[in-house]
Amino acid sequence: MNKLDAQRQKEIQQAEELLFAGPQALGFAKGLFQGRFVSDWVMPYPRIPEAQQGELDETLTELRKFLNEDLDPAEIDRQADIPRSVINGLGRIGVLGMTAPKEYGGRGFSQMANCKVLEEIGRRCASTSVFVNAHHSIGIRALLLFGTHEQNQKWLPKLVTGEQLGAFALTEREAGSDAANVQMQARPTEDGSHFILNGEKRYITNAAIAHELTVMARTPMPGSDKTAVTAFLVTPDMPGFEMLEARMPKTGIKGTATGRFALRDVKVPKENILGPIGKGLKVALTVLDFGRTTFGACCTGAAKTCLELAVAHANTRRQFNKTLGEFELVKKKIARIAADAYAMEAMTTVTAAFIDRGLEDYMLETAMLKVFTTERLWECINDVFQIYGGSAYFTDLPLERMLRDARINQIGEGANEVLTSFIALVGMRGPGMEFKEIYDTMMKPSRDGMSKAWAAGKNRLSATVLVPDVPVQSEQLRAHARQLGRTIRHFNFAVNRALITYREPILDMQLVQERIANAAMDLFASTCVLSRIDGEIQFAGRNGNAASPDHAAADLFLHQSFRRIRGFLAALTDNDDKAVIAAAKSCLTSGSTETAP
Ligand SMILES: Cc1cc2nc3c(=O)[nH]c(=O)nc-3n(C[C@H](O)[C@H](O)[C@H](O)COP(=O)(O)OP(=O)(O)OC[C@H]3O[C@@H](n4cnc5c(N)ncnc54)[C@H](O)[C@@H]3O)c2cc1C
Question: Strand 212-220 to strand 166-169: parallel, antiparallel, or no bridges (unpaired)?
Answer without folding.
Answer: parallel
